[in-house]
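Notebook entry, structure prediction.
Reason for the run: the old model in the group folder had no record of what sequence produced it. Starting over properly, with the input documented here first.
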Amino acid sequence: MEFDVSQAQKPSIFRRLGALLYDVVLLIAVLMVANALIVIPYDVITGHQIYDSSLPLLLMRLYLLAVIAAFYVYFWTHGGQTLGMRAWRIRVITDDGESLGMGQALRRFLWSVVSFVPAGLGLWLSLFNRDGLALHDRVSNTRVIMLEKAA
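New structure, fully documented this time:
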C-alpha cells in the first residue's frame, strides 16, 4: 500500500511517545523471556551467573540489543507498525510513501538509538522540523504518519 506523503498528517510528539511507551511495556516482557533463554542454561551449565564476568555480560547486552532491533525491524517491515503504533494509529513509511525494507528499517533502528541516547534530543528535533521529522526519520529517509480512524 502506498501513501500520499504530501497529504499525510504528522503525529504529535506526545502520540509518538505514547506509542513508544506501549512498545516498552511489551518489550520488557520480550526481554524477560530472551534473558531467561540465555541466563538459565548458562547458570546450569557453568555453575556461574552470567553477570559475574565482563565478556559474558557484554555478549548478553549485545544479544538483548539485537532482540530489540529484531522486534522493531520485524514490525516496521511487516505492516509498518509496532503494536504501540497500531494502538496510537501511526505508521512508519519511506519518504516515497512505501513500506520499509529490511535495510531501511535497520538503519532507522540504529539511528533511533543514536537519537534517543542524549535524553531523546533526536526526537525533540521533530518539534522544530516543519515536516515533524526526528533525527532518525531524516537520516533513514522515513517518516511517521497518522492513520485515519477506522469506521
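Summary: The chain has six helices and two strands.
The old model has been moved to the deprecated folder.
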